[in-house]
Write a structure and sequence with these properties.
Blueprint: E1 8-12, E2 14-22, H1 27-41, E3 44-50, E4 65-73, E5 86-89, H2 92-99, E6 107-111, H3 117-122, H4 129-132, E7 139-143, H5 145-152, H6 160-164, H7 167-178, H8 184-193, H9 198-217, E8 223-227, E9 237-241, H10 242-257, E10 261-265, H11 272-278, E11 286-290, H12 294-306, E12 310-315, H13 317-333, E13 337-343, H14 360-365, E14 375-377, H15 383-398, E15 401-407, H16 408-412, E16 414-418, H17 485-500, E17 509-510, E18 518-523, H18 527-539, E19 545-549, E20 551-553, H19 559-564, E21 568-573, H20 578-587, E22 592-595, H21 604-619, H22 628-633
Helix pairs in contact: 1-7, 7-9, 8-9, 10-11, 10-15, 12-13, 18-21
């Protein structure tokens, strides 16, 4: 039946959507496509894929639920959002697993096809929650998405099982209509992806269009929503994940140094995509070696560096443990080597698909002997590109292994990235030694650059520049084996001085009027949640300073002065306080540690409450009318929007739902 009511269009400044279903329901693909549509429309965005560690958990069970969350807005945002405004649940397990994260008044679009007594019982429901009233606090739209999908593709002669697999495209079409997303890119994608399977291709396209058209004609929807494009600096943009940005950054660093790139790696979640992406880039003089294990992977990379290439190895926490002996060898040999640690929840195998940043102390000290090396950490998916270029610069310039820290949140999440002009990237000079470097015509491999303390780097086979390598202690300048106590002390101190002398930019502090008494200091992927939390506190009148570390060893030279200029320093981390421990030890500043290790990113609202409470305590605010923490945490649509860019206008531009209180 054709719609007879007028469709109202409401303006929103931001929306958080979560697609959830079985790991075989294509939720990651659905989220990726909605993200691509949103990126092409011009919104700022941030994503959070979340999937089980099992390759295929039993269908319809809670452990098998996979989800993809997308936050998109007409302004600059920093996180994928704390809670979804819209949850698309493809089965009862997806509803139950995600309902705890959904605020009252949010929209639930639920596929009712699998709400049978058997399926409900296996996840702990005695009755159908769609019929008991327990969802009355939400705007529930129950639809038989599976049945409608099968009906929409029946002309293609697929089995019911094959036909039902297109339900994710039906749901994507419906939500694309609801939020007025472009559809051409998804249709083109499906035509390309299933070009060799015409029936599957046509069925998915038909399901996608049917979902879109259902929104246009169904009486369940009387409102559509519009989120206008964000204002961004001029340039060329693309949506990019952290792992893809890291791969591109490594290639860019090698290219700016004029070196081939050799990756030695062993597949491990969540780092494997870097190997996959680099294997596609052979045209940029990239060689990838999928080694038989972690130790062989880093051995190949270090050997490539000895041969005059930029050696790179990628892994996660368990693999970094295995690589530690060869990392120490790289410290002894003083060769460029980039080690990428895409952190995940541990210890041991831990939770492979969940995020954490608990490898900091491991990469700082997890080697035998005094084996210092620079440590860098990316702060966002797009920043993985810049941090990889910086790691290449330091490794090549200072002749040292460098560790880059990312994590599962950054690796799999995505955001818009302004593609840089290649000519604007730093030029990196490998400064190979091509001839004897002493007046008497000899080659001394450990003769150092007086400014960087980097040793000479000669490609094997260069006439007259014979030298030996190995893990035994080197004699100063000659590189010969030495057991002399005084020489060992000299070499230990020299290697430490080289790392301490790495050129690191000063840390910048965001303190708008310079009167804040509390500084929030973060590192790695906490950048987005901390930044969003700080904006919330400022939106309700709190004075707070914010700084973020990308260089963790050595620290920026001005960090000690910055820390001592504030009465309180709060350090939120997804570990049990590892950076806080380092800061206390080095600067004797009693920082306040806020630690969470739940396998999920920190939330902006929870951080806002912690920050606001600390500001109140530090400034001695005891006015009952001013509770900065709870006020900042409770910001939502309609209350001091925009909470993630600090502008408080007091009026909503239109609400997706009627909020009945903050979670």
């Amino acid at each position: 039946m054709k719609r007879t009511v007028t469709i109202e269009v409401k303006q929103l400044d931001r929306v958080v959507i979560r697609f959830a279903g079985d790991s075989g329901d294509g939720m990651q693909l659905t989220g990726d496509r909605f993200t691509a549509e949103t990126a092409s429309f011009g919104n700022d965005l941030s994503t959070l894929p979340n999937f089980p560690a099992e390759i295929r958990a039993p269908a319809g069970t809670l452990p098998g639920v996979s989800s993809f969350q997308l936050h998109f807005a007409d302004h600059d945002i920093l996180t994928p959002g704390d809670a979804p405004d819209v949850l698309i649940a493809m089965n009862p397990a997806a509803l139950k697993a995600n309902l705890k994260d959904v605020p009252r008044g949010a929209t639930l679009i639920v596929d009712t096809a699998d709400f049978t007594a058997r399926n409900l019982k296996r996840i702990g429901y005695d009755e159908n929650p769609l019929e008991t009233g327990e969802l009355d606090a939400y705007h529930v739209i129950p639809l038989n998405l599976t049945g409608m999908t099968v009906e929409s593709v029946k002309e293609f002669g697929l089995t019911r099982k094959d036909a039902s697999r297109a339900k994710n495209m039906y749901a994507l079409g419906l939500v694309s209509w609801l939020f007025q997303r472009p559809v051409e890119s998804t249709i083109t994608f499906l035509q390309t992806k299933f070009a060799s399977k015409p029936d599957i291709r046509d069925a998915n396209i038909a399901a996608f269009r049917a979902g879109y058209n259902f929104g246009e004609t169904a009486e369940e929807f009387s409102v559509r929503y519009e989120v206008k494009p964000a204002s961004m600096a001029s340039g060329t943009y693309r949506n990019i994940s952290g792992n893809l940005a890291l791969a591109y950054g490594l290639v860019a660093g090698a290219q700016r140094a004029g070196l081939p790139l050799v990756l030695g790696a062993y597949p491990i979640t969540p780092a494997s995509d870097v190997l996959h992406e680099l294997s596609k880039l052979k045209r940029f003089n990239v060689t990838t070696v999928q080694a038989e294990d972690e130790i062989a992977g880093i051995g190949a990379a270090l050997g490539a560096s000895f041969g005059g290439a930029l050696g790179v190895t990628t892994s996660s926490g368990p693999g970094i443990s295995l690589k530690s002996e060869t990392i120490g060898l790289g410290v002894m040999l003083e060769l460029p080597l980039v080690i990428c640690d895409i952190q995940r929840a541990g210890p041991s195998t831990g939770m492979p698909t969940k995020t954490e940043q608990a490898d900091l102390l491991q990469v700082m000290f997890g080697r035998n002997g005094e084996a210092p090396l620079p440590v860098l950490a990316a702060q966002s998916p797009a920043d993985c590109f810049a941090i990889a270029v910086e790691a290449a610069r330091i490794a090549i310039t200072y002749r040292t292994p460098v560790i880059v820290l990312s994590d599962g949140y950054l690796a799999n999440g995505s955001e818009p990235w302004q593609i840089p002009v290649v000519a604007d990237l730093p030029t990196i000079d490998p400064n190979f030694t091509l001839e004897p470097n002493t007046e008497d015509g000899k080659y001394l491999p450990y003769l150092r650059d007086p400014e960087t303390l980097a040793r000479a780097w000669a490609i094997p086979g260069t006439p007259g520049l014979d030298h030996r390598i190995g893990g035994l202690e080197k004699e100063d300048k000659t590189g010969n084996i030495s057991y002399d106590p005084a020489n060992h002390d000299l070499m230990i101190r020299t290697r430490q001085a080289k790392v301490d002398g790495v050129d690191v930019p000063p840390i910048e502090v965001d303190d708008p009027d310079g009167t804040a008494k509390v500084l929030v200091l973060g590192w790695g992927s906490t950048y987005g949640p901390i930044g969003a939390g700080v904006r919330r506190v400022r939106a309700v009148g709190g004075k707070i300073a914010h700084a973020h570390l990308r260089h963790l060893n050595p620290f920026p030279a001005n960090l000690g002065d910055v820390l001592k200029s504030y009465e309180k320093v709060l350090v939120p981390e997804m570990n049990l306080g590892q950076l806080a421990m380092l800061l206390r030890a080095k600067y004797l500043v009693d920082v306040v540690s806020y630690a969470q290790v739940r396998g999920m990113p920190l939330g902006a609202a929870e951080l806002a409450e912690v920050i606001g409470n600390l500001v109140e305590e530090t400034e001695g605010i005891d006015d009952d009318a001013r509770h900065l923490g709870s006020a900042a945490a409770g910001l939502k649509h309609g209350e001091a929007l925009h909470t993630e860019n600090g502008r408080a206008n007091g009026q909503s531009n239109g609400q997706l739902h009627t909020s009945e209180g903050a979670r």
